[in-house]
Amino acid sequence: MTRDWWKHLILILGMIVVIAPFYLMVSYSFKSPGEIERGEGGFFGRQELMVDERCVSLRAPDRKDIAAASQRFPGQTENAIRTALIAEAKSACSMRPVVFNYTKAFSEAPLLRYLLNGIAVTVSIFLIQAVVALPAAYALAKLKFWGREAVFGLVLFCLLIPVHAIALPLYIILAKLGLTNTYAALVVPWTISVFGIFLMRQFFMTVPDDLIDAARMDGMGEFAIVWRVMLPTAIPALLAFAIFSIVAHWNDYFWPRIVVTGNRDLFTPPLGLREFKGDGDGSYFGPMMATATVIVTPLIVAFLLAQKRFIEGITLSGMK
Amino acid sequence: MPAPDVPSAGKASTPPPTPTNSAPVIRDYRAAWTLTGPALILMVLILLVPVAIAGLLSFTDYSLGSDSFNWIGSANYEKLFTRASYEKMFVATLTYVVTVVPLSVALGLGAAILIHSLGRFGALYKTIYFLPVMATLLAMSIAWEFMLHPTIGMLNRTLELGCGTLLERVWPFLANGCADRFPVWLGDKRYAIWVICFIGVWQGFGFNMVLYLAGLTSVHRELYHAAEMDGARSAWDRFRLVTWPALGPTTVFVVTITCIRAFQVFDTVEAFWPQGGGPNKSTYVMMFAIFEKGVQQNLIGIGSAITMLFLTFVMFLTLIQRWLVERKVHY
After folding, report:
1. Enclosing domain of residue A90
2. Is B132 at the interface with chain A, CB within 8 A?
């Protein structure tokens, strides 16, 4: 143990560098603008009550408010009432920085909508990929038919083409079809996962033929075999592929950036964060980091809970 | 269960399939095409047709919204190889790939070996090093932007702590920073590309580490004993003679996938410099160029030419990998 100290030293130094931006992100999401500006407050900030200036200026009393409030402050001058009202607004608008940051994250931009978009897009991508890839993988692994080698050769060739690389022609096609700024544009290019076909084929090769024969003798058709015999055996592989796919598309920024312009209703989480960054001024660093934290957290938590599965899924592409 | 003359894939697995199987083979034949049909159609429409379209458009001056276009021969490609801004694109992309690939492979391997040799705490390091792989890169880019902020950033603040200490004497960079000011990391063309490279390594080495860890667990203990018998005493000898060769297949894969990912760097560049690709275009990488020229400026021809070049690079790399896997690295 003691002679391993240098290994720990190196690994801990590395760990500090790896953790640093996460630390900063979460820490800023707790702090007030002043604390961020001056770099104080440790990790959690001091959490002193702060006044939200925008909220105060929104509640700035006009003549009508003062007239309405004059009954509450009988016999005072207009100016005194105004001051009292502003003080009220200030106390109503003051809150802890952490509350401020996270409420702003959800209220300044429709973050909840972005998150739901993200879930909808990633889940539908995965489901379509599975529905398309599983039957094809089964046919390539277990059926003998004229042209099988050609189809598999095509799969191997298509593995060479990263979808991001052909984003421009895909974008042109979608634009010509009038599909940019739709959910379809976010999902369609990813509906075919050549990698998924390849992976599931490799997996199906290991399923004993007897299982399929038995199913055929029971009078099952090929489709029924795919969904009722092959799918249950493939759950572990499919789960790994699901993680691979969902992580990739939840985090994807390039493709949504290209096909979704301006229409906030379609924003995925990274796009929402990008917009936040684009129009944020100095006092919005905290809410922005809160947004970033909210976006990053789901996958990180899932990863920490099911590390082995995640590492399996993400490194899938390394399996032979 | 009686064993009738059932045509089965099991029996047919002895090639060639016997003619008695003809009826089910025909059934298989129809079913097979129905099963592969959707995948086949999508592969053609989503992957092959776009490649062809990009190939054709790269010889035109097409732009979205215009009804006609002209064939302009190889003018787009000529531009790519003659204009200074595209030269910067190649320089930035190659700098990035050539820096990030070796560093993240080496760090991945180093971390894997260290972690593998530790019994306790190994899992903890592994978990932490893997976090950046999972995190949304765009969000982390913004966090890095704050880390690197010239005045309120954590990095420069940490460096400032070194001012007035002994460190200042031995490290000229620190002394300069203290005397004048610390670098504007993202606004300085001397540093910008290296910052992008650094974040690339930061994000990617955990992935390589995990692959190497998987590789290391499959290296047989006896090989080390055998090497020791043969006189491989030092740790370096053991690494050179046993570990490294045994990890050959992993390395081929890790290098290829890191290369392909490195070519696709985009998120960090776009997050830091939404316009123009960094100070003096020093971080004008290919993906960003495709996005800027093709999508933002609607210069589809030139964007397609970059796309074709990009595809060529990536396909070339993958083919080299497959070739290596097939011939060299089987033990």
Report:
1. 5-97
2. yes
